[in-house]
Write a structure and sequence with these properties.
Shape: globular
CATH topology of the largest domain: Rossmann fold
CATH architecture of the largest domain: 3-Layer(aba) Sandwich
CATH class of the largest domain: Alpha Beta
Number of helices: 15
Order of helices and strands: EHHEEHEHHEHEEHEEEHEHEHHEHEHHH
Number of strands: 14
Radius of gyration: 21 Å
Helix content: 25-40%
CATH superfamily of the largest domain: Glycogen Phosphorylase B
Strand content: 15-25%
Largest sheet: 6 strands, parallel
Strand order of the largest sheet: 2-1-3-4-5-6
Distance between the termini: 12 Å
Amino acid sequence: MIMDLTDLRIGYVPISDKFDQPGDNRRFCYYAKKRNIAFEIANPAESYDLVIVTELGDLSIWSEYDKGNTKIIYDFIDSYLAISRWNPKGLLRGIAKYVAGHSRYLRINHWKAIESMCRRADAVICSTVEQRQDISKFCENIHIILDFHSKITRHVKTDYSIGHQVNLVWEGRPENVTGIAQIKEALVQLSNKYRLSLHIITDLEYKKYMNKIGKISIVNEIRRIFNDSIVYLYQWNPEMLSRIITGCDIAVIPLNTKDSLTYGKPENKLLLFWRMGIPTVTSATPAYIRAMDKCGLQLYCQDNKEWVEKLEKLIVDSKARKHAGMKGKKCADTFYSQEHYLKQWDNLLQSVLT
């Protein structure tokens, strides 16, 4: 049921004040636009009927927010609670957020800050069943909702032929680009038999620490992984993204499965590729395995041997490429449609406002 929210004051704590980050424009902001919901950037000094807090919200403030009868939804989409309590980055995250100005008050233990936010929230959004299990200790009203992709999936692959060169494609945030190193050995092996190119679509620079300090060049990062000329880099651009992807032959999503945060990622990236009809090979993470099994595909890899075998199968077999691409698209359209996501958000709001 679509609720009438006209008379409600709704605050939103964004990833970016420009609403130009995926955590904004592929999630609540997109939903609000589709449902004509008015909202404002939330000010903790003000009172609201409803506040949506994203992961970059100041948890030291919003976990303690108690003005009036405000309902809070916490959009918590990454698996931070799965990280070992002895993880060096995890141990420093709370202090780093305070020093960088992301937290008004010092919360040394960032895990505890997240737990407090989950307890304060009237509902928590997450992205995997594993994450839901971790959150369930602190909140009962949990909703798994994935990303909207309609604004960026503007083209769909129809030609599954391969020319004189095999074009692989990777897309993602710049801080995740080093994950490509997981398939370096496989690509080296395959390049001895086939002419390969790897097309990487990302921001070409980023700040390493808290998105504020330490400018990193992706060009230099890629050179540390690949010392030859098989890589083509593109600045991430919503206008060109789907054109570049559908012009390639096979998409790859390699992840460091020993890292809890990346291992716990949802199937958003896989669905993005599937919506464009491109055959995709992934690392064997729980979310990717579930999505592949639902689709009737087994293009997930446990090790280098499987990466070589499954990529080569797609390289040499045009029917296999077309089958994987079309089956992935059908699965995305059937089980992960925009209308399904809109209804999930409708149900979420109804669960906290009625």
